[in-house]
Q: What sequence folds into this?
């Protein structure tokens, strides 16, 4: 893949990094930085910004891969990628012995870092999309990806993100090390695009950029990906029953009339997929002491609602809430509340600390629909969260 490189015999400034490579580099710094900040620090409320920055990063990497095939000399992978592990180890030995040559483009270690960074961003984009499809039933992978697969993708996504953070730290350290070793500010060179061509520096053979193949490849790849994502992505059906056909079971979309009439008299309507069948049986068997109130119904109505709740309980859905919650048992053996569970409290740490449940329009933790606009659907998508402020 690599062509023989030559060493220079004079010292002067030359153009190395073309405008696209520089824009890509600093654009990737910005998008990965925003994705890391929103993912590790700011939390679910910033998920739209997180996804947008991740998509932009993936687009930049895709364009960089195309430019790495058709771009000019120093942008091409063929000018710096080292396929033989032995040559990479030889370069490390040369660095230790202080006899490593100066590369005008990427040195072998820098080339390996470039490939690792590009691959990490693409893997993060893929695992993030798989996570959204399996866990939140949204995005291009929503149809046939089960919840467990989304959870596994989410764990892998986090591990790769941590790995990318480590690579970024190593990359910065490598830039500082090489800048001192070569006596030239490499970060500044990525701004100006120019480096000093010193005696005996390793220079790759000159190649011109192939613009037309680059543009056609970009249109084909990005256009195809955009069309596929648009065609595949569909919103989950809401409580009114509207929505596209799904390959996996989701929460029940329409409520039993008796359930809707009796339960809405005191509180919002909770989707039956929030609790397992056994939990619903416990709740319906203790209506005479329904969380401190007597909510008793006639036997026929009680049985009808119980049967409907059990028939559409968490076991029948593949949503995130259906896999998260199980009612705790109170001291007297009566069923507890969802907001007493560790899972619920972990998800609502920020709201509990900010006092969001004390806002008048929210009232209590039981009023899910005050913040979750899709609460009755049982989906509880992070895209449907809007915390009221007063």
A:
């Amino acid at each position: 893949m690599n062509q023989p490189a030559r060493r220079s015999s004079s010292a002067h400034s030359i153009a190395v990094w073309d405008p696209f490579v520089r824009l890509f580099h600093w654009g990737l710094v910005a998008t990965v930085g925003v994705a890391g900040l929103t993912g590790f620090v700011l939390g679910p409320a910033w998920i739209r910004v997180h996804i947008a920055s991740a998509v932009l990063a993936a687009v930049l990497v895709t364009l960089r891969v195309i430019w790495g095939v058709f771009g000019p000399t120093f942008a091409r992978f063929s000018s710096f990628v080292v396929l033989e592990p032995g040559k990479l180890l030889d370069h490390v030995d040369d660095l230790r012995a202080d006899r490593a040559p100066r590369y005008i483009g990427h040195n072998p270690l820098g080339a390996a870092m470039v490939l690792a960074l590009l691959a990490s961003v693409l893997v993060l984009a893929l695992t993030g999309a798989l996570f959204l499809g399996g866990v939140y039933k949204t995005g291009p992978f929503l149809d046939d990806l089960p919840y467990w697969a989304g959870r596994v993708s989410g764990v892998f996504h986090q591990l790769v993100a941590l790995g990318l953070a480590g690579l970024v730290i190593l990359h910065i350290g490598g830039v500082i090390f090489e800048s001192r070793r070569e006596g030239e500010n490499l970060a500044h060179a990525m701004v100006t695009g120019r480096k000093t061509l010193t005696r005996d520096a390793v220079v790759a053979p000159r190649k011109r950029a192939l613009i037309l193949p680059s543009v056609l490849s970009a249109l084909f790849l990005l256009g195809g990906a955009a069309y596929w994502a648009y065609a595949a992505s569909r919103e989950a059906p809401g409580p009114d029953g509207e929505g596209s056909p799904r390959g996996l079971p989701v929460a029940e979309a329409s409520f039993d009339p008796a359930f809707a009439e009796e339960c809405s008299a005191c509180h919002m309507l909770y989707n039956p997929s929030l609790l397992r069948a056994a939990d619903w049986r416990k709740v319906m068997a203790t209506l005479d002491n329904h969380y401190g109130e007597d909510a008793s119904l006639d036997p026929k109505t009680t049985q009808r609602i119980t049967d409907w709740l059990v028939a559409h309980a968490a076991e029948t859905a593949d949503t995130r809430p259906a896999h998260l919650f199980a009612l705790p048992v109170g001291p007297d053996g009566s069923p507890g509340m969802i907001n007493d569970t560790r899972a619920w409290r972990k998800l609502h740490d920020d709201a509990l600390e900010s006092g969001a449940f004390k806002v008048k329009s929210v009232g209590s933790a039981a009023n899910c629909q005050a913040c979750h606009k899709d609460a009755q659907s049982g989906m509880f998508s992070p895209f449907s969260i809007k915390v009221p402020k007063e």
Q: What stands out?
A: The CA atoms of residues 6 and 257 lie 81 Å apart. The two ends are 63 Å apart (CA to CA). Residues 1-9, 235-246 have pLDDT under 50 and may be disordered. The chain is about 50% helix and 5% strand.
